[in-house]
Amino acid sequence: MVQWVAPDLSWKQYWQQFPVILFFPPVFISYLMFGFTVYIIINLAFPTILKFPYKSMSPRITSPEDFVEDDPTVERPRLKGASANDFKIIYEPEEITKTVVLAGSFNPPHNGHFSMIRFLAQEHKHVKVVVGFNPSKTYTVSPQTRHRIVETMCKDFDNVQVVLCDGLIWKYASRNKATVLYRGIRTWRKDGLGELFLLWQNLFFPPILGRIEPIPTKFLEGDPQFNHISSTVVREKCAFGGEGGEGLVGLVPKCVQRSIYDAYTYTEYTEDKKNK
């Protein structure tokens, strides 16, 4: 019987050989995998959640006199027709170069989505609103129709671009050099469980499939005054909420009220007739 005998090394000798042991390929890979696993577990256990009212990530002007019209480091108000009195946010040079992504199905969009987009448009240089869809699925309202509705909803924000994406959102974000992936939720208690798998995807897939660093995922909790609104509620209102979209008042932005009603009322009644 062979008996293993521990090498007779002093602590000093062991410490001298430690770097060699550490960077021995199997050991080094084990350390990397352990660190990566701990990183994923920590991010899943403690996700980044921005609660309403959202705190600005940039300095704010305290009075209209502080708005310097000729300062090239000050980003102009992005809401069309706004003045310094209406839109008092300035940006540091490194902050204004950021591109962020807000992804969702927007089926259909509502006031909760709009308030989040407005906040991101104020805080970042470029905002990509991604209408995600699965090309193998058949949708009652097409992704192209939803894209058109969201685009109309965001027409007053010069720095917001609405796009369609039929693949993994993190791949799109990486191609467009986005620094943050945002997801809109009502509250973490209501929607958090369903978002954990997507968060895991955003953490695990980029380094494994794309050999890139994971893009941070942050969750935006909705304004409490809109937390009773969901896309399901809007669809139900389209079916049973009165003519001309009157039932959508207070649920969706006025500029898309009619388009959402026209897109979703017909489909809801069609499905109802089929079921009968």
Protein model, in words:
It is a single chain. The chain has 276 residues and is of the alpha/beta class. It is built from 8 helices and 6 strands. The chain has a 6-stranded parallel β-sheet with strand order 1-6-5-2-3-4, sandwiched between helices. α4 (143-153) links the parallel β3 (126-132) and β4. It is elongated.
Write the layout of secondary structure elements.
Blueprint: H1 11-22, H2 25-45, E1 48-50, E2 99-104, H3 111-123, E3 126-132, H4 143-153, E4 160-165, H5 169-175, E5 180-185, H6 188-210, E6 217-221, H7 231-240, H8 257-275
Parallel strand pairs: 1-6, 2-3, 2-5, 3-4, 5-6
Helix pairs in contact: 7-8
Shape: elongated
Structural class, from helix and strand content?
A: alpha/beta
State the share of residues found in helices, binned by percent. Answer: 40-55%
Whole-number average pLDDT?
A: 77
* N-to-C CA distance: 79 Å
- Going across the major beta sheet, what is the strand order? 1-6-5-2-3-4
* Main sheet summary: 6 strands, parallel
Specify the number of helices.
Answer: 8
Beta strand %: 5-15%
Low-confidence segments, given as residue ranges, are 59-96, 272-276
Q: Total number of β-strand segments?
A: 6
SSE string: HHEEHEHEHEHEHH
Radius of gyration: 25 Å
Keywords:
276 residues; 12% strand; disordered C terminus; alpha/beta
Question: In a nutshell, what does this entry contain?
Answer:
The chain is α/β, with parallel strands linked by helices and 276 residues long.
